């Protein structure tokens, strides 16, 4: 039986981390991207079939541009499913927490998928497509859901350059949202470790899992960790809803944050106990260690 693990979107932050984790565990890896060593356009059926050929497990770490999720994500997912089905492989989706919409209390996997904003509805449809394909026996599928992430290589994230690069430059490190509300944040190598575990375990199939993460932290606590590692006089600020609306008039990326502001103005905590019970003990990096490694990466990469 093949031990080929295929990573789609292998040049993205999560994809790179998954490739590194698979390699560390001794798996045969095919890293797929548009312009990498194995180049394929997985938005086309032909490209997806070629990318997935011979795979035992496929990790879906590619996605449409964030602003085009609502328009493109479901069709993109159907194309990827065609490639995975043709290979007779298992699909592991790198997922997020949008499907639930605003809730009171910690997020658990059994909560209904009632998100009513465009990107949330797209994620609901995508997850339904995967689970339907699994029930129909077309593919084996599982999903690993993570919160906002940070870590080496984490550039296109709210906890990236505006925190780490800014602090290293002696500028104000900015947290998107209320500085004093607890928030689950995921460390990229931990996300990758969780996804690979789902790929290795048959008992992960047919459902979504919240990937293990460190303890929830407030923005103030997280930025304090960053400045403690950087040294110097701390400079921190929170980006509130009003400023987000103003900046969104000029910055389309900031504008997109409005849809999920409910994740930023109240406690936003993901319960990962189901994963820990099923697959534990698990490796989770302390935020202090994760911050140190992320700062080291930003130093090395300017």
What does this molecule look like?
There is one protein chain. Strands 3-2-1-4-5-6-10 form a 7-stranded parallel beta sheet, sandwiched between helices. Strands 7-9 form a two-stranded parallel ribbon. It has a domain at 4-147 and 187-214 and 271-285: Rossmann fold (3-Layer(aba) Sandwich), CATH 3.40.50. Strand 4 (57-60), helix 3 (69-87) and strand 5 form a beta-alpha-beta unit. It has helices spanning 13-24, 45-52, 69-87, 118-135, 164-168, 188-200, 219-230, 241-248, 252-256, 273-279, 287-300; strands at 4-8, 28-33, 38-39, 57-60, 90-95, 140-145, 149-150, 173-176, 186-187, 208-210, 236-239. The protein is globular, with a radius of gyration of 19 Å. 45% of the residues are buried. 40% of the residues lie in helices and 15% in strands. It has 302 residues and is α/β, with parallel strands linked by helices. The mean pLDDT is 96. The longest helix is centred in the first third of the chain and has 19 residues, at 69-87.
Short overview:
It holds the Pfam family Epimerase. Helix content is 40%, strand content 15%. The chain has 302 residues and is an alpha/beta fold.
